[in-house]
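Below is a filled-in request sheet from our internal design queue. Each sheet records the structural input a requester submitted and the sequence that came back. We keep these sheets so that new team members can see what a complete request looks like end to end.

REQUESTER: design group, bay 2
PRIORITY: normal
MODE: inverse folding
CHAIN LENGTH: 282
BACKBONE (tokenized):
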């Protein structure tokens, strides 16, 4: 199934696809096992930093081979690229979707760059994601209301760019939250009424379960999840290393991988509208 078809199916059902970043073979296998154990599909994401670490061709080969061996339907997505040349390389390498992030630039510049990427992607049936509004990065202040995505501006942006997916700013933030987030669901509803593009929620790490489910019920069809994966993996890896003097990494990594698998399973359930066995803090 093509990614677009999968997203359309999720939107009709009022559910979402979880999009998880991976950083190495261990985190890749961990998230894919979560998808297998919940009989779910998954979007696998690489950031520019991960591509710099692994290489484009290696990332593609790893994702395709691992998904096939684990037996999971998965699509490969480029996350938060700011360089059009990198986007072009990923399109040519076989990515299913790419994100051009010009959200910190002026509206007209964001439109121009997004339109350029859409033109590159269309001949290969690659979906394009863009971001509109201010979604704070790790450690930055929370967005003010006037910096969030404006419904009327979102409508114009999608019309002028032809973008397939739109990441919205509705009170979410990348990285860990300094205080409990409060998603603006009414704003999300208003955007959904005006926009045909698939809506994306970034910064899902730390969002309470009830708000996560509410966002999905009101139009979010792709949920980006990354920070908690890294944090969980490293926390359990540190713990495992204190209990052993083994130099065999095949013995040290599995506990961290299993912890990530359990975490991602709980988030997949949220995307399906079900209760998580490991609730986020209220």
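RETURNED SEQUENCE:
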């Amino acid at each position: 199934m093509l990614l677009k078809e999968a997203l359309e199916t999720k939107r009709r059902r009022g559910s979402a696809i979880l999009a998880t970043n991976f950083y190495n073979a261990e985190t890749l296998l961990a998230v894919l096992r979560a998808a297998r154990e919940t009989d779910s599909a998954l979007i696998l994401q690489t950031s520019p930093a991960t591509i710099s670490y692994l290489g484009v061709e290696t990332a593609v080969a790893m994702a395709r081979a691992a998904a096939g061996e684990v037996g999971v339907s998965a699509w490969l997505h480029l996350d938060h690229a700011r360089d059009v040349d990198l986007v072009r390389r990923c399109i040519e390498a076989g990515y299913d979707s790419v994100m051009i992030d010009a959200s910190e630039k002026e509206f007209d510049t964001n439109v121009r760059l997004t339109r350029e990427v859409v033109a590159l992607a269309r001949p290969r049936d690659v979906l394009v994601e863009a971001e509109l509004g201010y979604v704070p990065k790790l450690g930055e202040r929370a967005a003010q209301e006037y910096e969030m995505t404006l419904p009327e501006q979102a409508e114009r942006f999608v019309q002028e760019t032809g973008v397939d997916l739109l990441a919205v700013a509705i009170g979410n933030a990348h990285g860990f939250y300094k205080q409990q987030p409060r998603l603006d669901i009414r704003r999300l509803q208003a955007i959904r009424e005006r926009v045909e593009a698939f809506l994306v929620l970034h910064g899902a790490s730390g969002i309470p379960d009830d708000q996560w489910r509410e966002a999905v019920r009101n139009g979010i069809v792709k949920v980006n999840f990354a920070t908690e994966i890294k944090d969980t993996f490293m926390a359990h890896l540190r713990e495992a290393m204190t209990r052993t003097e083994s130099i065999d990494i095949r013995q040290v990594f599995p506990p961290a991988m299993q912890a990530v698998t359990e975490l991602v399973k709980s988030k997949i359930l949220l995307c399906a509208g079900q209760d998580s066995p490991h609730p986020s803090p209220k």
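SHEET NOTES:
- Strands lie at 17-21, 42-46, 74-81, 97-100, 127-132, 165-168, 198-201, 220-225.
- Residues 25 and 62 are 7 Å apart (CA to CA).
FILED BY: M.R.
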